[in-house]
User: Which sequence fits this backbone?
């Protein structure tokens, strides 16, 4: 999955768990497609600070997903929508619930 799509999906799920500043930085970088320098100029901080913050945000989002698996479960449920065998659906839903 493309990095931007992946992190936007994670942000949709876990974004409210980030600080307001983290949400702002993420939105400007991933949703508004601003460069690190443009974001740094807007907040009057260094480009490296913003780069470090983006990396920390990515780590935080990855950590949340590795613990909660919400995106993984959502993707698995989406795949099940294409399955016709009710027995297989039942088995796979049980796997998802008890992951």
Assistant:
């Amino acid at each position: 999955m493309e990095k931007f799509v992946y992190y936007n999906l994670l942000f949709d799920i876990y974004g409210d768990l980030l600080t307001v500043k983290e949400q702002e930085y993420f939105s400007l970088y991933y949703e508004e497609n601003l460069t690190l320098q443009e974001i740094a100029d807007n907040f009057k901080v260094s480009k490296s600070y913003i780069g470090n913050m983006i990396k920390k945000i990515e780590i935080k989002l990855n950590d949340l997903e590795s613990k909660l698996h919400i995106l993984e479960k959502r993707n698995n449920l989406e795949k099940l929508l294409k399955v016709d065998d009710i027995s297989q659906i039942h088995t796979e839903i049980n796997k998802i619930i008890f992951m």
Notes: The helical segments are 3-14, 20-31, 36-43, 47-68, 70-80, 86-97. The chain has two domains: 1-68, 69-99. Residues 69-99 form one domain.
